[in-house]
Amino acid sequence: MPDSPSTALASSTPTRRGVSAWWRALAISLMVVLLIAWAASASMLEQLKAQIAHLQAKVSVVAQVQYLSVLLDGQQQPALLVTADVQGSVLQLQRLNEVREGRDDSMQLWALEGDKPPRSLGVVTSAYQTLQLTTATAALAGVQELAISVEDKGGVAEARGPRLPYLFKGALVKKAL
């Protein structure tokens, strides 16, 4: 029996069973892009973990404030911020106004404990906005107030006490840790 026209047409056209080269190239390209994206995200994740670990280490070293005092001037305006950290033996002082000592004067920081005589915590020797005084944090135990007086250059002996009324004064607060 002779071939029918539809059978003859089907046998003359070759059947394509494979995938075109264009689709194959596209699939390989997409696989390469996905592999690069995965590698980049894995690298970024590792970098993020390293940064988090680094920042956690920095935070654990940062001193926490244990004592805080805002010394006020005669008009009850903030004049000096005093902080003491838990670990150190340093008081951080930050000037909050523009009052400066004269050439022949010094400002001296005093610890006030009720009726006891004032104890000197040091002489402010810097004209900068922020400074540090080396004082053991234990020296602040039992202290209710801090005060600043103007004294002769270099300060006065602790036994003598301040020679003038206090220029700045404020309560000392011990922060709960």
Secondary-structure element pattern, one letter each = HHEEEEEEEE
Uncertain residue ranges: none
Helix/strand class:
alpha+beta
- Spatial separation of the terminal alpha carbons: 103 Å
The shape, in one word, is rod-shaped
Cα-atom Rg, whole angstroms?
38 Å
State the CATH class of the largest domain: Mainly Beta
Characterise the protein shown here.
The chain is α+β, with helices and mostly antiparallel strands and 177 residues long. The chain folds into two domains: 15-61; 65-174, Immunoglobulin-like (Sandwich), CATH 2.60.40. The chain contains two helices and eight strands. The protein has helices at 5-12, 21-61; strands spanning 65-72, 78-85, 90-95, 105-112, 119-124, 130-134, 145-152, 168-174. It has an eight-stranded antiparallel beta sheet, with no helix packed on it. The longest helix has 41 residues, at 21-61. It starts with a helix and ends with a strand. The model has no long low-confidence stretch (mean pLDDT 81).
